[in-house]
Amino acid sequence: MIKRSLLNEPIINAEKPPCFIAIEGPIGVGKSTLTRRLATSLGYQMLLEQAEDNPFLERFYANQRHAALSAQLFFLFQRAQQLSDLRQSDMFSQTHIADFLFQKDPLFAQITLEPNELELYHKVYQQVEVDIPTPDLVIYLQAPVKVLKERIQHRGVQFEQSIHGDYLERVNAAYSEFFLNYNDSPLLIINASEIDFANNDRQYEQLLQYLLEIRSGRHYFNPTFF
């Protein structure tokens, strides 16, 4: 059992966890929140998806067709650069946690781009994916559209308020299909609908203990108390 006093500071003398963890899931599911808390507990460096730096994202949410390719390529290059910088700084001697999985990038391209744009995207993706590291553990957070909409509204980012439910439905379906066939890394699937990793220490403690023991395969996490 992990001592509660260690939940918000680096763990000492714990079993060695995976060196590179990636957290994934649709917008509003809680990726960045969980990434920050795990980074604190494990003493890891963070890689955060810097959506606020994407100059095309607001236009994309307002009118997907007018900015889909630009927004997608910006994220592709941004993520590739972040991971490339890590590799050049000897990533394998360090520990990191990211709130994105690079290998899922085509997921969004497939649901937002026209066929000719998608063809161009795939050509670019094949060039930049070279030497992108594979995580030692992937955590996939799930939640239904109703929950995602509530959380998006609650966090109050103005241009995100225009995100439509049908878009979130397509995103959720694409994530489900992607991770149904994903086997590049050990995978932990979490239904985050009724889990509060930011404020519920008991739920978070259970997750932390659980992931420290994962070495291979596919796993599902449900806290035993709330």
Automatic annotation (TrEMBL):
Active site: D99
Pfam families for this protein: dNK
GO MF assignments: ATP binding; deoxyguanosine kinase activity
Entry superkingdom: Bacteria
Keyword annotations: ATP-binding, Kinase, Nucleotide-binding, Transferase
Enzymatic class: transferase
SUPFAM superfamilies, alphabetized: P-loop containing nucleoside triphosphate hydrolases
GO CC term, one of those recorded: cytoplasm
Binding site for ATP: G25, P26, I27, G28, V29, G30, K31, S32, T33, R151, I152, Q153, H154, R155
EC assignment: 2.7.1.113
Residue ranges occupied by any Deoxynucleoside kinase domain in the UniProt entry: 21-209
PANTHER family the UniProt entry points to: DEOXYGUANOSINE KINASE (PTHR10513:SF46), DEOXYNUCLEOSIDE KINASE (PTHR10513)
UniProt protein name: Deoxyguanosine kinase
The organism's taxonomic lineage, starting at the top: Bacteria, Pseudomonadati, Pseudomonadota, Gammaproteobacteria, Cellvibrionales
